[in-house]
Design goal:
The two termini are about 30 Å apart. It is built from 1 helix and 18 strands. The N terminus is likely disordered.
């Protein structure tokens, strides 16, 4: 884990009652797993990573194609898919106590490819590290992101096939959100955000909108809440 995040992470864990332990880690281990698509009309994707590097893209023929790297055996990711009625739920979890974070020379990375033909609700709980979410080609119904410490980049550029909401709840990290310039965009930010930098949207009162917001058939609404250190909203 990058050293620059350690003081902030220590403070955040202290507030939440979590404990940091040191572990030198072992040799890197790798494994891949896929989940076949079924005929569910929609799928909820629930990603829960405590600390590491997270990469999410589109392009899978399966429902998901996942490649994992880790060097702490207890952190081997768990992948589960269930279905109830016409709705599926895909869950990928970093196991271990929610009150313990292991520090040291850890290697922990998820590379996930999602299917872009299945309507999805994406829920990401990301504690610390770096996350890059390239979501613009997915058939999104909604996105919810809870982040703690580190850096997050979310790219929503692409064809907006349905209107959907994006909710971001922050800790003390940095977030960059790229938006399609020709889509209907409405963005609000609340809470103890350290700084906000907006490009390509116009400021109206307490929110920002794209020039095409009123005319757009499909819209993206962005709601940012919490103590994010810095956020960038870029429509291009």
């Amino acid at each position: 884990m990058t050293a620059r995040y350690l003081p902030a992470l220590a403070a955040l864990l202290g507030l939440t009652g979590c404990v940091m332990e040191r572990d030198p880690g072992g040799p890197a281990q790798y494994f891949s797993q896929s989940v076949e698509p079924d005929n569910s009309e929609e799928v909820r994707v629930d990603l829960r990573m405590g600390a590491g590097d997270l990469q999410v893209t589109d392009g899978a023929q399966k429902l998901v194609r996942a490649d994992f790297t880790y060097n702490i055996p207890a952190w081997k990711p768990e992948v589960k898919y269930t279905r109830e009625g016409n709705r599926g739920t895909l869950t990928i979890v970093q196991p271990g106590s929610s009150h313990t974070t292991v520090m040291g020379k850890t290697q922990y990375r998820w590379d996930l490819q999602l299917n872009n033909k299945v309507p999805m609700d994406l829920n990401v709980n990301f504690g610390a590290g770096k996350a890059r979410l390239d979501l613009g080609s997915l058939m999104l119904r909604g996105v919810e992101l809870n982040m703690g410490v580190g850096q997050m980049e979310m790219d929503l550029r692409g064809k907006v096939r349905h209107s959907y909401n994006v909710s971001i709840h922050g800790g003390v990290g940095e977030a960059t959100i790229r938006l399609p310039v020709d889509a209907g965009i409405y963005a609000e930010a609340h809470g103890g955000i350290g700084s906000i930098n907006v490009r390509g949207l116009r400021h109206e009162g307490g929110h920002w909108v794209s020039d095409s917001y009123e005319q757009a058939e499909n819209k993206i609404r962005i709601d940012v809440e919490g103590g994010i250190g810095a956020i960038k909203l870029i429509a291009d």
